[in-house]
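Worked example

This section walks through a single chain of length 260. The input is the sequence exactly as stored; nothing has been trimmed or padded.
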Amino acid sequence: MVALSLHSVVPVRTEPSECAEQSTQMLFGELCTILEQKSRWNRIKLMSDGQEGWVDAKMTTPMSDDEYKTYSEALTSSAKVIFPMTYAVSENNGQTIPLTAGTQLAQYKEGRFEVLGVGFRIDPSMVCVQPLEMNQENLLQVVRFFLNVPYLWGGKNAMGMDCSGFTQTIMGLFGKNLLRNASEQVQQGEMVDSLKEAKAGDLVFFDHEDGKISHVGIVIDPERVIHCSGRVKVEKLDETGIFSAEQGEYSHHLVVIRRY
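Given that input, the structure is written out below as tokens.
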């Protein structure tokens, strides 16, 4: 069975419990497949990146085959909310729905989109109609609005993001479809041999002492990275890793650079 979210943000958990860890989130209009039903919980698989987890059943809306076909055909992957937060207004009842960056809009045209036959109005200046060209100027214009968004494990919205939720959201605005976790994102793209060759939009990956990929950020230039650690911030980058001015030491050890 296919379902979608009609809520701004839905927590996706590792177990069918409100107390369970949040592993990722499901945004407004996002599609999923229901794999299993257990009491008031559904185990789902997100169609956007393949992540699986448990959601409260009342937070998703089942779709018929015809509804899914119509909606999936209407979903324009290139039309996305670009700013951290904005509002859509229902043409049905006038109620507002907050939408976060990365939310895809179906049948979008000139400030209007539609979900399951209900039309919504949105400020067109808040929408990225076509993927942005990846260059330093465009990257800086986008990420400056995300500075100081707090870190939240499993988060991918303006009220809280983890490191890979941040990179997935930002890179999606540039037409780069990344998987959800840093350990998955490092398997995508092409290797960049050294930091001297890095360009704006390349991803840099870091590890803990165990050697496993544990953190990711976006290159602004070979000497600066923007990443979410405590909050979204810009810090100094070199071949060793990220030097934290706040801590007075290196906070993350550089392992690999990838281009998408």
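What to look for: The radius of gyration is 19 Å.
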